[in-house]
Each structure stands twice: as C-alpha cells, then as structure tokens.
Amino acid sequence: MSNSSDFLVIGAGVSGAAVGAELAEIGSVTLLEMEERPGYHSSGRSAALYTPNYGPAVVRAIIGASAEFYRQPMEGFTDHALLTPRQAMSFVPAGSEAKIDEFIAAATPATPLQEISVDQACKLAPLLKREAVARAVLDPHVMDMDAGAIHQGFLKLFKHRGGRTFTDRRVTALERTAGRWHAESSSGERFDARIVINAGGAWADEIGQLAGLKPINLTPMRRTAIIIAGDPTLAPPSLPAVDDGATEAYVKPDAGRLMASLGDATPSAPCDAQPEDLDMAMIVDWLERNTHLTVRRIEHSWAGLRSFVPDHCPVVGFDRDAEGFFWLAGQGGYGIMLSAALGRLSRGLIADGSMPPDLIARGVDLAALAPERCRT
Ligand SMILES: Cc1cc2nc3c(=O)[nH]c(=O)nc-3n(C[C@H](O)[C@H](O)[C@H](O)COP(=O)(O)OP(=O)(O)OC[C@H]3O[C@@H](n4cnc5c(N)ncnc54)[C@H](O)[C@@H]3O)c2cc1C
Predict the structure, then answer these.
(1) pLDDT attached to residue 2
(2) 164: part of which helix (H) or strand (E)?
(3) Would the CATH topology of 4-68+147-217+311-375 be identical to that of 87-141+219-308?
(4) Is 261 in a helix, a strand, or coil?
(5) Closest-lying ligand 1 atom to the alpha carbon of residue 14
(6) Which of 198, 273, 318, 329 is most buried, judging by how many CB atoms fall within 10 Å of its CB?
C-alpha cells in the first residue's frame, strides 16, 4: 500500500480527526498518531463542557459555529445527543463581588448570564456553604458535551470517507523536497504528501521545529482533575457545574459522580501529564472549605495539557515560511468545542483559501488566527 497521499495529518486528537474527516472529502488523507490509540492525550482528558461564554471573542464565535453541528450532526455521526443541558453557576466570596459584574459584561450577547440571589444559588447547588457565596450568576447556555462521541464520530467519518489512520507512528523528521513533504516515523516507514497538517496538540511546536520552522510560542499548561463519589442530597442530578469565580476552581456532575478541579494552569513541557499529590490535596481543600462535601476517597484522578499561545486564540493557517505546512494548534481549554468549525475552516483554507460563510458572518478574522502573529 502506498504511503503517499494528498494530505498528511500529524496527531489523531479531536483536532486531527476533525480536519482529517473534512479533507477526506477532497483528497486522500493519512493520519499519523504516535500513541497506540487516538485520544490518549488532551482529547481524552477534558471536562467535557460546552461553555459558549469562554475565551477571547474569536474563540466564542468559532464555538458558536461548532454548536450547530453538535446539535444536529450528520446521519451516522453518533447515535445519541452530543450536547445535553447542564447550566453553570459562578459564585464569588465576599471581597470579590465585582467579578460578577465582569462576567455579566463579558458574556456574548446571544448567551447572556443571569444574576441570581444567594438563596437561589444555594437552592440550585445545595452542596455550597452559604457563607462561601456573596454573589452568584447563572449561565443557562452551558451544556454537557459528549467529548468521546465527538472524537469517535470524526474518526468514524474519516474512515468512512477513505482516510487511513496509523497509530504507534511518531513523526520524527519532516523534509520538503520536490514539492512534497516527506515524514519519517518511529516505525521506520516514510510517508509523503503535498500538504502536512500539524495537529500535534502540546507537541505542535516540536513538530514545527522538525520542519525547520520558528516556534509559535505554544505553552502546554497542566490541569489536574479528580473524581469523587456523588451525593444525591448535596449534588442532585440537576446540579449545574459550579465554579468559584475568584479562583477558577470548579465541581460538576460526572456520570453519577462529581468531577472537581482547581482550574490550575501550570506550564509544562509536552508530556504524558500526571496529577501531582499537592494539586489533588488543594482540590480537596477547596471542596471542603466551600461545600458541605467530605472527601473520603479520590476514586480517580488525571491531569491533561491545555496548550495556549500568548493571546489564547488558536493557530490556524499555512506557515508563511514553509510551503504546504498548515498549523492547527493552540486550542487551549476549548479544543473539543472548536473542533467541528476549525475542521471546516481548515478545509476551506487548504482547498482554496476560502472561509466558510457562517464563520465570516460571525466575524471570525483570519488575522487573529494566523501563525505569524505568534512570532512578533
Ligand atoms: C483538564 C482539561 C479540561 C478540559 N476541558 C475542556 C472542555 O470542557 N471543553 C473543551 O472544549 N475543551 C476542554 N479541554 C481542552 C481540550 O481537551 C483540548 O483543547 C483538545 O483536546 C485539543 O485537541 P488536540 O487534538 O489539538 O490535541 P490532542 O488531543 O493532545 O492530540 C494531539 C495528538 O498529537 C499526537 N502527536 C504529538 N506529536 C506527534 C508526533 N510527532 N507524531 C505523531 N503524533 C503526534 C499526540 O499523541 C496526540 O494524540 C480540556 C483540557 C483539559 C486538559
């Protein structure tokens, strides 16, 4: 079987899977993944929340453009709903009241927040200690998102459209000769393509360097999460995701249990991120100070990397310094939400430099996503 294709996508997380599925409609695509299965890194470690009021304006616009697909995916993508209602509530302690005004002012007009009383907050979230709450706001637009089904849906679509996935293939060298990119992989096989798409998550800068490119100044940030037992009285199934607006720590329902995180962002090298004992102890401390929960046992814990460039917007587009090298990186804490629309946007830019009309209508500016902006 030939290892030549039109497009070579590096990284089979949700970003690589989504762009692969799009490109497989217009050419032959090979998807290379260094781990033994797709989704081992960030895409398999998210909080699985759809939060339209999160991130810079361009991120919110792209999240909105993805939502239409998640609400009504094409036939065969999934056999159940990808988004289900959840809501999110932000509370702040005394001394941080002004934060609530900031949250309300920053909300996207299409997805406004509603201030609620302390009584309403404690009724909606019986786990909260009343003395922890000085002001609160409700975001009714936040949804639970089936991150696994979204990722699997794109992989399935990719395969259905003729795309080929190779796991256990780490790209170790990249070279452009005679108008094509040639990739060497850890298996010893060589792959070549007209266009290479760098969807390497936390490793995107390392992959750029293999091609001799300047970094986009990507910083992977570690975030730790724990799962603890649910509590039907303090945390009924209707519990919104609850976050502490002063510290970014949060707790949310997770399949009958509770997931909690400090909302930490610790700079890290690209790696198989692992939870640190101190971070887990701090999550438990936050829970026990702000809620009525007593944490007897941590059932499960994990850490994952959210990779950002300095302006926290994704990096999408061809590199000016290397013909046929396309960046799809810097998805930060929103990569699952962004993947559908970023896949479509990447396809348009790669195929003929065009932007999907709905992204133009939402005011998405390509300059805000361009790789070169990260190097100035
Ligand atoms: C704790 C946590 C909570 C989050 N919560 C949310 C949330 O609620 N909602 C949301 O939308 N997003 C959330 N995110 C962010 C989201 O998970 C990421 O933005 C998204 O998964 C990034 O996907 P990706 O495909 O770009 O990266 P990845 O999933 O990391 O995929 C990159 C892939 O590239 C592969 N790779 C790297 N180098 C090579 C190489 N040289 N050769 C071959 N393969 C290579 C890696 O093995 C990896 O599989 C969260 C992240 C974390 C860590």
Answers:
(1) 77
(2) strand 164-166
(3) no
(4) strand
(5) 25
(6) 198
Nearby residues of 136 by Cβ (< 8 Å), 6 or more positions away:
89, 90, 91, 92, 100, 115, 116, 117, 118, 120, 121
| Cβ–Cβ under 8 Å, residues 11 and 199 | yes
pLDDT given at position 376? 76
**Which among 221, 242, 222, 239 is positioned nearest to 230, based on CA atoms?**
239
Name the closest-CA residue to atom 31, ligand 1: 13
Query: In CATH, what is the architecture of 87-141+219-308?
Result: 2-Layer Sandwich (3.30)
Beta-carbon neighbour count of residue 219 at 10 Å? 19
Q: Which fold has domain 4-68+147-217+311-375?
A: FAD/NAD(P)-binding domain (3.50.50)
- H/E stretch holding 196 reads strand 190-198
Ligand 1 site: residues with CB under 6 angstroms? 10-16, 32-35, 40-43, 45-49, 170-171, 199-203, 207, 223, 225, 304-306, 331-337
Ligand 1 centroid to 134 CA: how many Å?
Answer: 36
Q: Is the pLDDT of residue 375 over 90?
A: yes
pTM of the model: 0.98
Sorted by sequence, the CB contacts under 8 Å of residue 104 that are 6+ apart come out as 112, 113, 115, 137
